[in-house]
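One thing: mind reviewing this one?
=====
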Amino acid sequence: MTNYKDRYKAQIQMNITSMIDVVFMLLIIFIIAAPLMRAEVDVKLPKSAAARTKEETAITVSITKDGQIFLGKTPITLDEFPDKIKQLASTGRVTSISLKGDEGVNYGLVMQVVGHIKEAGIENLGLVATPEKRGR
C-alpha cells in the first residue's frame, strides 16, 4: 500500500504567469511612452500665411537585372523616363528619390537614370543597398 506522503507529495514548480503579465504590461507602457520621449523644446508656433506646408514625396526608382525600370511600381521605358521624372519634378512635390538597382544591372544604365534625375533638378538622390553581414 502507498504511503500518504508518497501519494500527496508536494510538487515544486515556479509559477511564471504573474511574471509574464508584468513583462507584457511593461512592454505596453514602453510602446505607448516611446513616441512621447522626444528631445525637443516645446514651442507654440505663431500662425502665418508665409508658413505654408508643402506635401513632399519621396519616390523609388527600381532597375531590375534585365534592365527594366520602375517608377514606384509602374514599369517605364528608358525613353519615357526623362519626361516622367521632369513632370514629377515640375510639380515641386518630389523632394528625394531612392534608386534601387539590382547588383547584376548594367552600370551604364544606372548612370543614365542618375543623369536624367539630376537633369530634372532633383538633387536629393539616395542609392539603396542591403548591408553586408560581417563575420567575426
Observations:
- The CA atoms of residues 54 and 93 lie 7 Å apart.
- The first strand starts at residue 57 and ends at 63.
